């Protein structure tokens, strides 16, 4: 089915290309015949015809792609029930997969019934492909004919093309917004199911997080235990503690590196330092996790033992420190771009008043760049809050309500992963609590974004 889809799409692209060049030639002929200058460039008339040829047809192709497999699966399921009435419903998907593999030539069989079902499935699939190919080609040719017939020097094809682009951008933005709304809605729905079974206040203000214990207690009331193990305060405290440590590492180093590259470094040094810093952004987070677990955590533990302090083998300090190193290139690169975007006229004015290089940077450039710098710091915080692998490997999974960076903590993202992986039942309080954590983290991040954007807007008014 993938190859048939590709053939159809490639053929449609070829027809759209033919429509483009044919329409360009036709508008030139019409302009010469009527001795009239066309409203737009010839390429816009070609794009007008190509759009009418390609866009409606590709929409139909996508509709077929979305429903063709579902239609074929429905036919195959009906055929299986008819040919094997004694087949249990739990084996239906397995048999359907075998029939598809036989039809694709990936599996051989001596069973006449399965061979016949595979033949019927292959014939139905070929018929669907032929119908799809014919329908898409007819619609593409019809669009080409309509656009070709409407071509005239007076046609405002440039304006039509610009309106098409504007509507396309609007649709893209609407899809992004609707996707966000869909994610929020799904999280809210599952979180509501959780809060219908567990007290709202106990979740947000509880100080004990042990979902496995709570799950056992929920299924066995004879133990006498209560559902008091879903208190999210330890999990949220661990998230904020690790994010704070990471930002204490990343912000000074990233900001100072950006100031140096933007204001003090020569072009040659900048071309070496900036790519070197950005290499850190390309390292997989699991590698950072290995570094934190095998190098950073033992290092901090050995220092603590030498100073007479009890440092956990999995500590928030190790996870947050390594996470801060990971975030450095994000803050450094964005801060460099923001500082470089400050108008040179502000620097020249400060120099004209007798300011030194350092005074110009600290009293003029940085205040002017502060709104953008806040955005860079916000991106770093979001990156720290959403990180999982480093925390799992270096900070542990135990939820401790503590502000001591030398102890083991966990984060919201780690708990969500643990709750939603493995053999889980999606109607238990244990699993549904992951959605409650997710929607809480979403709103916490949203409030953080709103506060940062509001502060950046107020600070930016000074330079508008």
Explained architecture:
- It is a single chain.
- The protein has 464 residues and is mainly alpha-helical.
- The chain has two domains: 2-155, no CATH class; 233-463, Orthogonal Bundle (MetI-like fold).
- It has 16 helices and no strands.
- The chain has helices at residues 2-34, 42-83, 92-103, 112-150, 157-197, 200-205, 211-219, 233-264, 267-279, 285-306, 316-340, 344-352, 357-386, 389-394, 412-420, 429-460.
- Helix 11 packs across helix 13.
- The longest helix has 42 residues, at 42-83.
- The radius of gyration is 31 Å and the shape is flat.
Give structural attributes.
464 residues; MetI-like fold; 16 helices; 0% strand; flat
Short overview:
The chain is mainly α and 464 residues long. The chain contains 16 helices and no strands.
Output the CATH topology of the largest domain.
Answer: MetI-like fold
Instruction: Please give the number of β-strands.
Output: 0
The CATH class of the largest domain is Mainly Alpha
Instruction: Compute the average pLDDT.
Output: 83
**Assembly state of the chains shown:** single chain
Overall tally of structural domains: 2
The biggest beta sheet is recorded as: none
* Integer-rounded radius of gyration: 31 Å
What is the terminal separation in angstroms? 56 Å
CATH homologous superfamily caption of the largest domain = MetI-like
Number of helices: 16
Topology:
Blueprint: H1 2-34, H2 42-83, H3 92-103, H4 112-150, H5 157-197, H6 200-205, H7 211-219, H8 233-264, H9 267-279, H10 285-306, H11 316-340, H12 344-352, H13 357-386, H14 389-394, H15 412-420, H16 429-460
Helix pairs in contact: 1-2, 1-4, 2-3, 2-4, 2-5, 3-4, 5-16, 8-11, 8-13, 9-11, 10-11, 11-13, 12-13, 13-16, 15-16
